[in-house]
Amino acid sequence: MNPNAVLDIAMQGLMVTAKLAAPIVVTALVVGFAISLVQSITQIQEVTLSFVPKAAAVAVALIICGQWMIAELVSFTHVLFDKIPQLLGGG
């Protein structure tokens, strides 16, 4: 196995990780920003006011995107398993 193959697999892994994390992170960012905006307008500074809606929104995002996320992860795993023979030099 050469260093280029290792770097290629690592880069693919990072890209899959970014694709899988994006819906969750973007959802938390948008909801957090909206709640912070409401808190600054109303001057209510309660920690649970920002945590609970963010947790609920992330749960909804996981429910909506979960099937796609699992499919992407399974696809990436299949690609890695298919590459094993050529990485070991057998084909």
UniProtKB/TrEMBL annotation:
The chain crosses the membrane at residues 20-39, 51-70. InterPro entries: Bac_export_3, FliQ. Keywords: Bacterial flagellum, Cell membrane, Cell projection, Cilium, Flagellum, Membrane, Transmembrane, Transmembrane helix. It is a multi-pass membrane protein. GO terms for biological process: bacterial-type flagellum assembly; protein secretion. Belongs to the FliQ/MopD/SpaQ family. It is found in: Cell membrane; Bacterial flagellum basal body. GO terms for cellular component: bacterial-type flagellum basal body; plasma membrane. Its main location: membrane. NCBIfam families: fliQ. Role in flagellar biosynthesis. This is Flagellar biosynthetic protein FliQ. It comes from Leifsonia soli. Signal peptide: none annotated. The gene is fliQ. The keyword DNA-binding does not apply.
